[in-house]
Amino acid sequence: MNRRRLLQLSLLSALAPATGFAAPAKVGSPKKGIGIGAKGEWKEKLSALDCKWFYSWGASAPADVPAGISFAPMVWGHPGQIAKVPEIGAAAKAAGRKELLGFNEPDQKNQANLSVETALDAWPKLMETGLRLGSPGCVHPDREWMKAFMAGVKKRKLRVDFVCVHSYGNDNADGLVKRLEAVHKLYGKPIWITEFAVGDWSAKKVAENRYKPKAVLKFMENALRQLKRLDCVERYAWFPAGPDNAALGTSALFDAQGKLTELGECYRDF
To answer: Is the pLDDT confidence value at 116 over 90?
Structure first.
C-alpha cells in the first residue's frame, strides 16, 4: 500500500465516527478508464483499478462487465468491421451505450492503416448510428493524417464529437497537458485520452528504460491531478503494458503475478 493510500484511509476512518456515516472506500475520478482485452483476470483488474469505464479495441462488450463500469465500443478499422457498423451501432444503443470510438491508429502501418479518404468515406456510416463519435485515435493526433481527416470532416460537413488522443512521450506531465490543450485548440473538440503512458522507445529491455518507476509515478501523480480538473478532457485511459515490455514496462500497473504495482495503486487512488 502506498503512502497516499495509507493517509487517505486513515483520514476516512477518522472522519467516520464524527459523521456517523461509513466513508467510501474508493473515490476515483469519473474520467478514469482503461483499454483492456477480455482475457485472463480482466474483470478483477478493472475492479482493482476502480475504473469507471473501459474499452477493448473491439465492437462488442465482453460478458459479465462488472457493475458500475461502462463499456465504449470501437470500430477498429478493418474493412469487414466497417461493413458491420449498422449492427454495431444498433447493439450499442440497445445496451444503453452512448459513444462509439473511431478507427485505431489509422496513421500506423501495423494498426488500422487507413488512408484519410477511406476513413472519411466510411465516416457517414458511423454517424448513422446516432452515437457520440470519437475521432480516429492516431499515433500523432496533431500531425498530417489527423489534420487532413479533421479538415475533411469540416469540408464534407461530417460529425466528430470528441477527439481521441494517444500519447507515449516522456515523463514531463506539464508537457502532456500543454499538448492536450493545443490539440483542443486545434480542433475545438473535447478530448478522450484513449492510450497514454511514459515510453522509452530506444530501450531493448526494461532494465535499460531511462524512465524509472519513481519517475513514472511522479509523472502520473502530476498528470492525473491536472487531468481531473482539465475541462477539455472528458476521459482518460492509461495503457496497461506488461511489466516485461521494454519500452513501457516501467509504466506497468500490474506486476508479473497480477498484483498492483505502486503505479497501479496510484492509478487506483486517483
So the answer is: yes
3-state secondary structure of 166: strand
User: What pLDDT is attached to residue 10?
Assistant: 42
- CA 131, 137, 141 angle in degrees (round to 5)? 125
Cα–Cα distance, 192 to 70 (Å, whole number):
15
pLDDT at 28 over 80: no
Residue whose C-alpha is closest to residue 75's, from 95, 90, 93, 60: 60
Q: Write the burial class of residue 73 (CB in 10 Å: 0-12 exposed, 13-18 middle, 19+ buried).
A: buried
pLDDT-based confidence at 78, cuts 50/70/90?
A: confident
Which residue from 259, 260, 268 is spatially nearest to 221, judged by alpha carbons? 268
- 1 falls in which pLDDT band (50, 70, 90)? low
Q: What is the mean pLDDT of residues 250-262?
A: 97
Number of C-beta neighbours around residue 270 at 10 A: 22
**Separation of alpha carbons 103 and 112, rounded Å:** 7
| Element (DSSP H or E) covering residue 88 | helix 85-94
- Name the region of 250 (left: φ>0; alpha: ψ -120 to 50; beta: rest): alpha
Dihedral angle, C-alpha 15, 20, 26, 29, nearest 10 °: -80
Q: Pull the grid cell for residue 121.
A: 468515406
Taken in order 184, 187, 191, 196, the sign of the CA dihedral is negative
pLDDT score at 19: 30
| Rounded Cα–Cα distance for residues 222 and 260 (Å) | 19
